[in-house]
Every structure is written in C-alpha cells, then in structure tokens.
Amino acid sequence: MDINIHRVTKIEVRKRHDMSSFSTRDIVIHSKTFDYDKNDYVTNKVTLNCYLSDKSVSKLVYTD
User: Fold this and answer.
1) Which residues lie closer than 8 Å to 3 by C-beta, 6 or more apart?
2) With the CA atoms of 3, 61, 8 and 1 taken in that order, what torsion angle do they form, in degrees rounded to the nearest 10?
3) pLDDT surpassing 90 at residue 27
4) pLDDT, tens digit, for every residue of 28-64?
5) What distance in Å separates the CA atoms of residue 38 and residue 25, rounded to the nearest whole number?
6) For residues 60 and 27, what is the distance between their CA atoms, to the nearest angstrom?
C-alpha cells in the first residue's frame, strides 16, 4: 500500500500504548493543500492508527 502526501509540514509519532494482547501507535501527518474555493492553503491532518501484535515492530527505523 502506498500513501502519497504532498507538502508535508510536520510528522508526529506518538507514544506506543501497550494493551494486554496488542500494542497501538499513532502516526500523524500534517500537510497543506490548496483550496480553490477559499483561494488559500488549508492545513490537513492524516492519522494512521497502527495495531501491532509484536512490540518490536513499533521500533522506529530511519533510512536515507
């Protein structure tokens, strides 16, 4: 699955929450898009809710 978001202004990786049988982690992406009705840029927020069965999967990995 590919997700393409243009004009990203901020990325938040929220703290992992551990439940009894799984973990969750939220990733929030802030971006701007041009609204032709308002004739100005509008801020958007996309939230990805990740449900993880293995805690080690939630480790952040950075690549170039």
Assistant:
1) 46
2) 0
3) yes
4) 999 999 999 999 999 999 999 999 998 888 788 888 7
5) 34
6) 11
Give me the pLDDT at residue 41, please: 95
Burial class (CB in 10 A: 0-12, 13-18, 19+), 23: middle
CA 47: distance to chain centroid?
A: 5
Query: Which pair of tokens denotes residue 32?
Result: 């701007």
- State the Cα–Cα distance between residues 2 and 31, nearest whole angstrom: 17
Q: Break the chain down into helix, strand, coil percent, rounded to 5.
A: 5, 55, 40
Sequential DSSP letters for 3-25: ----SEEEEEEPPPEE-SS-EEE
Amino acid at 33: T
- In the numeric block, the tokens 């393409």 are attached to 4
